[in-house]
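Please check both lines for our workbook:

___
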Amino acid sequence: MTEEIKEKERAEELLIEQTFHELLEDYLATKHRKRMEIITKAFNFANQAHKGIRRRSGEPYIMHPLAVAKIVCNEIGLGSTSICAALLHDVVEDTEYTIEDIEDIFGSKIAQIVDGLTKISGGIFGNRASTQTENFKKLLLTMSDDIRVILIKMADRLHNMRTLGSMLPSKQYKIAGETLYIYAPLANRLGLYKIKTELENLSFRYEHPEKYKEIEDKLAASAPEREKVFTDFTAPIRAQLDKMGMKYRIMARVKSIYSIWNKMQTKHVPFDEIYDLLAVRIIFDPQDMEEELNDCFNIYVAITKIYKPHPDRLRDWISHPKSNGYQALHVTLMNNNGQWIEVQIRSERMNDIAEQGFAAHWKYKEGVGNEDEGELEKWLLTIKEILEDPQPDAMDFLDTIKLNLFASEIFVFTPKGEIKTMPQGSTALDFAFSLHTDIGSHCIGAKVNHKLVPLSHKLQSGDQVEVLTSKAQRVQAEWEQYVTTARARAKILFIVRKEMKATQKQGENMLTEFLASIEIPMDDSAIDKLVHLHKLHNREELFEAIGNKKIELGETDKNTLKAKQIKWKQLLKFPFVTNKENKEKEENESEEQVQQAAIDTHKIVKLTEEALRKQYIIADCCHPIPGDDVLGYMDDEGHLTIHKRQCPVATRLKSAQGNRIIATEWDTHKELSFLVTIYIKGIDCVGLLNDVTQVISRQLNVNMRKLTIETIDGIFEGRIQLYVHDADDVQVICNNLKQIKNIKQVTRVE
């Protein structure tokens, strides 16, 4: 047995050495200056520090830092400093070594990056972390010190997602949800498109394994047909580019599995109706960098002579790069079979930036200046402003940050012709706050293309915007509904809260004076009595209402307080009075109960008929039914709410409160009925409604609750609410309805 153990150790040492040599070979193939000694030194140090430690999968722990270092080198394109930091990123967190030790051996720059990575570690795969929201705040703050911290963190997250199979189901849901909610859009914002796509696909694969496999199989089955379309479509393009003497390569880009599923969900269409599965990428190598932009447009002109372009689908990211540095020309062409195909035209430099984001700038320019990183700096500044006044609620904070992470971009002009980049969906009020907080605070409207518009007017690319202000204007609470950018929302909430606190303080002073005038002490009992009298929720609402004169203190208040003044202690027993000590005890017990339930996540909760009736709550936001992929969320009071895994509310919960997620599966044996909605669409004809009701009520014997049908210009749309036992019933109903002549689309909707 001892010999077997020794043999295993020798095999592992050989694997570690082999993996390290692969890393060195990858590094030697890059254009970075070759600093082999320091990388070797970092590997030997990390290997010794992690000796004897294993990951949950059973492999030696050093394989994880090695894998992260390879991603940093090959997939993000960073150099020796980042590779060393990747190799060392878990040393301070998991061993006895300190940041001071790292600085003494490897210098201040590597130590600074490792320190940044250490500050944002834990929690995601450990038990010691604070909430994920706090982790995310720390992560964003470190970005402004050195962007390489977040880039290495992306590599770390990518490898953890690639090895997620060894984790418990509840951990998989939490980590996959957090990845989809935070890390994938963050990767997109940083220009790491390939990493963003893989993170989305991996998250989807663990959350919905059956649906992932189904789409994967359908993509594989349709691959030969796509290959033929690609070959036929690109043949005349290749001939023309050869004639022009271009040095180029043409690639097929297939839509990712997650993107396909996402489109099926949002558009309510089956796989067969996703028509943009294939896109074509032309990547060229300009002979002269000064001619790079001209070459892009020359290729565009050449291919639009071969195929007709879609008039509304030209995207010029050449003249106006995205804020993450992305540049390309996108044009949609119709092939000879009447199929629209998007073509992306990029140089090799643009392609590197598209795949590696900001890291690729360093590959082409030594010492990147402020001009090149201007958009990134603006974004980091916005985040820092939000962090200076974080939302009291964790979910609000994540949502505010996400407003900027997901946003596509538009270009608008100031009256003087200056271009401003704004997220798609931005309003006139967003634009005002983007110029300056004072301009936003006093905004009364705007002129868009010389026409007067309200604060809530949504801007379009190319609009010229003039902001109108008035010194008399003040920020209103409802303005939060008029904005979509994180910066504007954060500023509005900050100003509103600041004014609200001032009003509350004024109200508190007024109440103190009033109580003193009727000789009643200003204590909790008196305040709670008045809160109840005016049908409010808490003392803050009372103070605010008094401060802004919504409540005038007078005889009614005086009589209410005086009536029971002698029996003051009895008032403490009234239901509307808070017994603070008991409340705190209950909260502590509740939190312990939730934590204990969360610790028990290795058990998968069975959603039986009896349990559903007595213990669990079916979420109203997504209405899951047996057969859906679901998870449970344990609240403060120990109640378990069942959500679909793809439900937006569940995704937020997984990210901010992942320790409360419970793995669940159905076990109801068709004994309970659940309400679902089926959407149908097709060509209107006589007797169609009768055909639909015949299929549902007579053939399938299903009870309908509601049926609505609307016909416009010969096209009908309908929604049917009916009771089913599980997702299999829904599939049978949809399949039967599809058999009806003239029905073209049938799908379940929320």
Notes: The mean pLDDT is 80. The longest strand covers residues 674-683.
